[in-house]
Automatic annotation (TrEMBL):
Matches recorded under InterPro entries: LD_TPept_cat_dom
Residue ranges of the region described as Disordered: 1-29, 51-130
Signal peptide residues on this chain, from the entry's feature table: none
Name recorded for this polypeptide: L,D-transpeptidase family protein
Ranges of biased composition (kind: Low complexity): 63-76, 108-117
Polar residues: compositionally biased ranges: 78-87
Domain (L,D-TPase catalytic): residue spans on this chain: 175-294
Length: 303
């Protein structure tokens, strides 16, 4: 679950596309009237809050290293394995043999700290950016987020950011309505929000469907929580708007698990950061570096 503050500024829709495999299936656009989204405890995740989710088409391509293109349809691309992208177990992988040959300095460890061998094995070889979300405890709804970037010398850590997760903590078997965040390794391929693109290289879907109102689980206001979101590829189709309702693993496995703006309360399944840190993360993520998120309570991640 997530939220966003009601913001009067709604710029024109921003369009970007990353080099990850896309799904060129046309998706109809949301009707013009803004959608008021209400929280219901029977739903889980963020996108589940949308009664009429927006289903925009894939944003037009932007030339590598250039300004975003406006207009035009995306070229068809090959479809990745849904299981490798959507399963909570992630895709197995080990450190590349061509990297890490230089002894890393103290602040750039060869292996990601806090992650055990089973967790590290789920990170794809190609990933050069890893967002690590470490929960305080299995049943806690507070956590810490660190963006790691892989260099020839090792993994370079960004600044730790405080975060929140689901009200009841974490689970390795997330189901609809359990109020727990899924543990696992997931790709990060798409972003969006009520407000204009703050400068991300991920595909960004701006839409009024990200508007939300009403109280959160702790009685706090949810307005503004979906100003900016990053879809976590749990039980969703990569290459689509975060609001796309498709659930490849079935509705009972939940969905709509996002990184989004903090609303001063626990989420239904998402991970929330301050607006400042969400914008910073959006600008830092580079689809060419195959970003993934590793999330779970500290004890689980050490396995």
């Amino acid at each position: 679950m997530a939220s966003s503050t009601d913001h009067p500024h709604r710029g024109s829709r921003s369009s970007r596309r990353d080099p990850w495999p896309a799904f060129p299936r046309p998706i109809p656009r949301l009707p013009r009237p803004a959608v008021a989204l209400l929280m219901t405890v029977a739903l889980t995740g963020c996108a589940a809050l949308a009664e009429n989710p927006a289903r925009d088409g894939r944003p037009p391509a932007s030339p590598a290293g250039g300004a975003p293109a406006h207009g035009g349809a995306p070229a068809p691309r090959s479809t990745p394995s849904a299981q490798s992208l959507l399963s909570p177990q992630g895709a197995p992988g080990t450190a590349s043999a061509t990297e890490g040959r230089t002894e890393p300095p103290a602040d750039a460890p060869a292996a990601l700290p806090g992650l055990g061998p089973r967790t590290r094995a789920q990170i794809p070889d190609s990933s050069r950016q890893v967002v690590v979300v470490t929960g305080r405890a299995r049943d806690a709804n507070r956590s810490e987020v660190v963006l790691y970037s892989r260099t020839p010398a090792g993994w370079r850590a960004g600044t730790p950011w405080p975060a929140r997760n689901a009200q009841k903590g974490w689970t390795e078997n997330h189901v609809l309505g359990d109020l727990r965040s899924p543990i696992g390794v997931f790709t990060l391929t798409d972003a969006g929000g009520l407000l204009p693109d703050p400068g991300t290289r991920l595909p960004y879907y701006q839409d009024e469907g990200f508007g939300i109102s009403g109280p959160g689980l702790a009685g706090e206001s949810l307005e503004g929580a979906f100003d900016h979101v990053i879809a976590i590829d749990y039980n969703r189709v990569p290459g689509t708007s975060p609001l796309d309702p498709t659930r490849p693993l079935g509705e009972e496995k939940g969905g709509g698990i996002w990184l989004h703006v903090d609303h001063e309360g626990p989420t239904q399944g998402c991970v929330s950061l301050s607006e400042e840190h969400m914008k910073e993360l959006l600008r830092a993520l580079d689809p060419a570096r195959r970003p993934v998120i590793v999330m779970g309570d500290a004890q689980s991640l050490q396995k």
